[in-house]
Design goal:
- The chain is an alpha+beta fold and about 350 residues long.
- About 45% of the residues lie in helices and about 20% in strands.
- The protein has 13 helices and ten strands.
- Strands 7-3-10-9-8 form a five-stranded antiparallel beta sheet.
- Helix 2 crosses helix 3.
């Protein structure tokens, strides 16, 4: 679709004014915000042409114009100017993440809270899945006289824990034996291979010692299963109730967001850059009046999980995308550093 330079500037101005005010944009308001001199009559003609091209819509006969789904797409793909995160914003975002930098699940939960607060939309993050990951290490920490916690860390940056109980008094010497046995057998192997059959065979190879380690075997199997699942952290769903344009679909959106599997499938879409899905592009009828902005993050150079914003089509895409890029990069670096930490 070929647009003249004037039409491009007018379309961009309509999008940005509508995002800022939430009101249909009229020719007079548009003239006041353009960086070049033009008459209201010319602006009205150009807006009429843009409407015929499917880029603008007129909600009511006497009202101004609003962007269509196609209009937003053209704006994002070719007209939008990047808006880098400011130094002050970076300091704020970093301070919000720092307190949970050493706990992957708390970190991603914190990212969702930060994004929801910064954008006033619904924010989602997914923890890394261990399906294609290897076991990096297994640690044991005594929690009481007869209980201990097993910690399993994977190459995807996940860390899962489980407390188990023994019928005898534990000691640091016993836990060192547990550490040596499990790390010799499991360190470096795919998490997906830690199955009940594998654990049974491992126990059988231990002879009488397996009796003492039975609860530890079950705990390791449980944390391996937990590591296989990508979890979803969500914040700000109620923010969606405050946008009039979502009033007819808000309930269906809430129902969709409550289905983790379906939401996870939507967020699994890969892209080198931040991906913006507008309305019907989401493939979900519940989101036909919404936009979804997805940014994948990497751990150790490998795709690991996603951050996402869900809100109305009327959003400040330049600002949202800048925040998503910065936070996904920060999360990836923090999880990579955690993965490289020898605990």
């Amino acid at each position: 679709m070929e647009l003249s330079e004037r039409k491009k500037k007018i379309l961009a101005a309509v999008v940005e004014l509508y995002v800022a005010t939430g009101e249909p944009v009229g020719s007079k308001a548009l003239c006041d915000n353009l960086d070049f001199a033009v008459s209201s009559a010319t602006v009205r003609n150009e807006m009429s042409d843009l409407a015929e091209m499917g880029l603008l819509d007129q909600p009511h006969t006497s009202a101004g114009r609003v962007p269509t789904q196609m209009g937003y797409r053209v704006y994002i793909d070719s007209l939008m100017k990047k808006k880098p995160v400011t130094r002050e914003e970076k300091r704020y975002l970093d301070s919000q993440l720092l307190s949970s930098a050493y706990d992957p699940e708390k970190l991603l939960d914190g990212v969702s809270r930060v994004l929801a607060a910064a954008t006033r939309f619904a924010a989602v993050s997914t923890t890394p899945s261990g399906r294609g990951a290897n076991i990096r290490a297994i640690q044991f920490v005594q929690t009481s006289r007869r209980t201990a916690m097993v910690i399993l860390m994977t190459s995807a940056g996940t860390m899962k824990t489980r407390v188990f109980h023994c019928d005898f008094d534990l000691s640091q010497e016993i836990l060192r034996v547990f550490f040596r046995v499990f790390n010799e057998k499991l360190a470096g192997m795919p998490v997906s291979e830690v199955t009940p059959a594998f654990i049974q065979n491992m126990a059988a190879s231990m002879g009488e010692m397996a009796i003492l380690m039975s609860s530890a075997f079950m705990a390791v199997l449980d944390v391996a299963r937990d590591s296989m699942q990508a979890e979803i952290c969500m914040e700000g769903q109620t923010n969606l109730l405050f946008y009039p344009e979502l009033s007819l679909t808000a309930r269906r959106m809430m129902d969709f967001l409550a289905h983790a599997d379906e939401l996870n499938r939507l967020l699994e879409q890969r892209s080198k850059n931040v991906k913006v899905l507008i309305g019907d592009e989401t493939g979900r009828p519940e989101l036909k009046d919404s936009s979804v902005v997805i940014s994948r993050y990497t751990v150790g150079g490998k795709d690991a999980g996603a951050l996402a914003i869900i809100g109305p089509m009327r959003m400040n895409y330049a600002k949202v995308i800048a925040h998503m890029e910065y936070l996904s990069d920060a999360v990836g670096k923090m999880l990579t550093e955690l993965m490289d930490y020898d605990f």
